[in-house]
Amino acid sequence: MILTIVLVSLSASIAGAAYITNPFSRFSIIRQPFVVEVAMDSLNALNDNHKIVIRQRWWWRLFAILKCGLYIMNTRYVSSPRSEASSVKGIVSDIHKLRFKPKKLLLTSGDHFSALFVRNLGVFYYPMLDTRIASSKHDWQNRQVVYLQTVAYALGVFQKYPVPTTTIVAMGAYSATCVNFYAYPSDTLYGILYALAALLGKQDPLPGESYGTPHHTLDTKPATQILLEEYRTTIGQLYSHYRTTVFDVKTGLIDTNIHISSAKDITRRYSAFYDNVVFWKTSQLAMELGIIPHDPAFLQQLKKQILQTFWLRDKGYFLEDLSEEGKHEAYYSSDWLIVLSTGFLHPKNKSERHYFEQSIDYIRAHGIDKPFAIKYQHETRAHRQFWAVRIAVASYGGDAIWSFWGMEYIKTLLLLYKYTDDAGYLAMADFHLAAYEHAMLRDGGFPEVYDSRGKLLETRLYRSIRQTGWVIGFEQVKAMRANIRKGTA
């Protein structure tokens, strides 16, 4: 009886602490150490990042992980709010109001993802500053402010703890804990550098591609330049730690002896194609921002090595990773689409177009874009996933449909149509766009992930975020579609 009382009290205490340290709960105790104020058309920052305190004792890290688990259970069994709007435009507007709040600590995917997965800045939220996405002036300011505040918060944390981690979990008013899900990160530094470059106007939201007319002007450059100079040393430390940890100078690629965590962090991989492309882009951005010396020969050789190693010419797609199993089974994974947002490859280049065309042929032949785009692969491969994911939602990193990668797939189809004039690509793009709009109206949002049948992903231990801010990628697709061959049905 006493033991039961103790366990119930402990559980209640943990749940209560998790609630008040959630940056998005109504009675949160979390405060913003870096705040951006809008004055006329300029952005002024109040930087109190010196107040940040890092908690890295094992019990803090355990609590951080338990918190994340509790938030997932809350989304599954308590709250999964849907937009009440009856139109796609209304749903998009509701999501913006819900997710892009400058008075909150950071930019997050939503619901149970209340911690900062730093990769989001460069991966899932890379279209945030696309000026060609039409919106109100107020919404544009919110997008700029929340993006700037989030990268500033990440830099403030890593200044106190200069080791890349996948996730920053708020623990108190100004305290935070850095944890990894589920290993050392492949793309954390990429997220930071991409955000800084985008905020400075040095990174186009769709590299190498011009479309449409800008609706807004970027107001973040002065504040971001100050931020970059203040944290230049910290960023240099992060890059040095990252490169030393993941890069094998002997092979000229990501080390095959370590597992690192990426956007597909649920799967155990070794020297994945995604990780190598991200390392290439991270190094390019570090050079662009003056963090490391310019070395175009290194980037050129790295790109050549990646293409020679991972492209399976006889199969027509990129090998997922260099693990023995991955090579033996010739595994495919849809996160190869990272080549588009990083500018690693582009359909407008004739010498690179075949990589996209043949990969799409493979995707279609294996039903990976059915019922709509796109699954990571046509099979679950649960044995490759970490045990927690395998138990909770085995399809998550397998044959589930991911809305973010679906948008990248549609962008690829639109660009192939633009540069080949093959109407088949446009028809495919329109089919997938219509499928997403139907799903948005059905589910009352823009879900993070769907099951293999195209329904909102839900198991006994997991439910997809219903209204994720990833909708910004959908808006970028819509802007591209409106400006490619205007008037084409």
Describe the SSE topology.
Elements (H helix, E strand, L loop, with lengths): L1 H19 L13 E6 L2 E6 L5 E2 L3 H20 L10 H12 L16 E2 L19 H24 L6 E4 L4 E5 L8 H12 L21 H10 L1 H15 E2 L4 E2 L18 H16 L7 H15 E2 L4 E2 L5 H6 L8 H5 L7 H16 L21 H7 L7 E2 H18 L2 H21 L5 E2 L20 H13 L6
Parallel strand pairs: 3-6
Antiparallel strand pairs: 1-2, 4-5, 5-6, 7-8, 9-10, 11-12
Helix pairs in contact: 4-5, 5-8, 8-9, 14-15, 14-16
Structural class: alpha+beta
- Kindly report the spatial arrangement of strands forming the biggest sheet: 3-6-5-4
CATH fold naming: Glycosyltransferase
Name the helicity range: 40-55%
How large is the radius of gyration?
A: 22 Å
Q: Give the averaged pLDDT, no decimals.
A: 94
Low-confidence stretches: none
Question: Which CATH architecture?
Answer: Alpha/alpha barrel
Summarize the helix and strand pattern as letters: HEEEHHEHEEHHHEEHHEEHHHHEHHEH
Reported for the largest beta sheet, the result is: 4 strands, mixed
Number of helices: 16
Overall CATH class: Mainly Alpha
How many structural domains are formed by the residues? 1
Number of strands: 12
